[in-house]
């Protein structure tokens, strides 16, 4: 399935480049189609939503939940995805594949996003920061204590610091 998507992405990119020599508007549409094919493959791999407007509003997101905790493994669910923290292999994975090792994690980040005029409540996002431009988002909550509990649990299991950040 992924190879088929990559084939269509490559075909759309080639058509966009060729059509740009005739019309910039057609070329821009082709590049947009390629982008949405790329986002589609990420959505199928559970790396993000394909259409953000279909995603649940912030006030409908469920809080964090510890699904299972054993001696070597922690399964924690957030509003974005569920993560499996394995102490024995020192890896973080989602339900489909390994996302990173403990060595790549710089810190556990709690990001506060205040209320806005659209009716969104203040939210607390919990993510694993892998560097300046890369992170793994667990989810969001409107409850500060729930978000800090999830971040503390991840910090305990990965031995990384928790960093609070506001916009």
Please supply descriptive tags for the structure shown above.
single chain, 167 residues, alpha+beta, four-stranded mixed β-sheet, 3 helices, elongated
Question: What's the helix and strand layout?
Answer:
Blueprint: H1 2-20, H2 24-44, E1 65-69, E2 73-77, E3 82-86, E4 91-93, E5 98-101, E6 107-113, E7 123-129, E8 135-141, H3 144-158, E9 162-166
Parallel strand pairs: 6-9
Antiparallel strand pairs: 1-2, 2-3, 3-4, 4-5, 6-7, 7-8
Helix pairs in contact: 1-2
Question: Helix and strand succession?
Answer: HHEEEEEEEEHE
Tally of individual helices: 3
Please give the oligomerization state of what you see: single chain
Return the structural class.
Answer: alpha+beta
Fraction of residues in H or I helices: 25-40%
β-strand amount: 25-35%
Largest sheet: 5 strands, antiparallel
Sequence stretches where pLDDT stays below 50 over 5 or more residues: none
- State the strand order across the main sheet: 1-2-3-4-5
Q: Radius of gyration in whole Å, from Cα?
A: 19 Å
Instruction: Tell me, briefly, the overall form.
Output: elongated
How many β strands by DSSP? 9
What's the overall average pLDDT, rounded? 78
């Amino acid at each position: 399935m992924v190879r088929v998507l990559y084939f269509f992405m490559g075909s759309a990119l080639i058509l966009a480049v060729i059509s740009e020599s005739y019309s910039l508007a057609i070329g821009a549409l082709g590049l947009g189609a390629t982008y949405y094919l790329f986002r589609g493959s990420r959505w199928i791999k559970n790396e993000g939503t394909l259409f953000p407007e279909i995603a649940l509003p912030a006030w409908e997101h469920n809080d964090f939940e510890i699904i299972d905790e054993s001696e070597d493994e922690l399964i924690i669910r957030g509003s974005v995805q569920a993560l499996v923290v394995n102490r024995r292999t020192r890896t973080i994975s989602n339900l489909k594949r390994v996302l990173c090792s403990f060595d790549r994690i710089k810190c556990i980040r709690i990001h506060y996003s205040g209320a806005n005029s659209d009716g969104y409540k203040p939210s607390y996002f919990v993510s694993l920061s892998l560097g300046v431009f890369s992170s793994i988002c667990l989810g969001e909550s409107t409850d500060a204590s729930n978000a800090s509990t999830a971040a503390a649990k991840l910090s305990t299991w990965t031995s990384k610091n928790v960093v609070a950040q506001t916009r």
